[in-house]
Amino acid sequence: MVCRMFRLETEVDKDRRDLLRTRLRDSNTAASAILRSLRGTPGERDVPLHVWAVNETDGTLAGGLVGYTWATWLHVTHLWVDDRHRGAGLGSRLLARAEDVARTQRSCRFSRLETWDFQAPRFYVKQGYRVACTVPDYPPGITEYLLTKTLG
């Protein structure tokens, strides 16, 4: 058996990060027929999906949704509504629009997102999402929720 010595480094290195991503993607593709079938197709890459609520009178941002689609999934990364507009259905409209675009224009069948206990888990459940798992103490004292939805 050959014993090798390695130096472990902790600095941020974007070139190594990119190399690591490529090698991990190649390893995953080799191990999974499903991921292999995505190679070279539009479903192989994340495609950004943004929905904005812009005030018609002054052009200010009232809310927005930032996410992406990948492999028949919509992943909602951020959803925010200005305090002045909360409770009026704007968040529901932003989410519904993103889901509609994902389903009708990008052939997505599912949606996923993460939220914290003090944010909006009940809101998402009302929108048809189901809690897939919880991560307690992430960060300490807060519970993170992962929710999913089948897009009709």
Task: Outline the structure in words.
- With 152 residues, the protein is of the alpha+beta class.
- It is 31% helix and 31% strand.
- Strands 1-2-3-4-6-5 form a 6-stranded mixed beta sheet.
- β5 and β6 form a beta hairpin.
Helix/strand order: HHEEEHEHEE
Coarse structural class: alpha+beta
Number of helices: 4
- In which order are the strands of the major sheet placed? 1-2-3-4-6-5
| Main beta-sheet annotation | 6 strands, mixed
User: Count the strands?
Assistant: 6
Give the overall form.
Answer: globular
Rounded to an integer, what's the Rg over CA atoms?
20 Å
Briefly summarize what is shown.
The chain has 152 residues and is of the alpha+beta class.
What descriptive keywords fit this protein?
single chain, 152 residues, alpha+beta, 6-stranded mixed beta sheet, 4 helices, 6 strands
Helices and strands, with pairings:
Layout: H1 14-31, H2 33-38, E1 47-54, E2 61-70, E3 73-81, H3 90-106, E4 110-116, H4 121-126, E5 130-135, E6 144-150
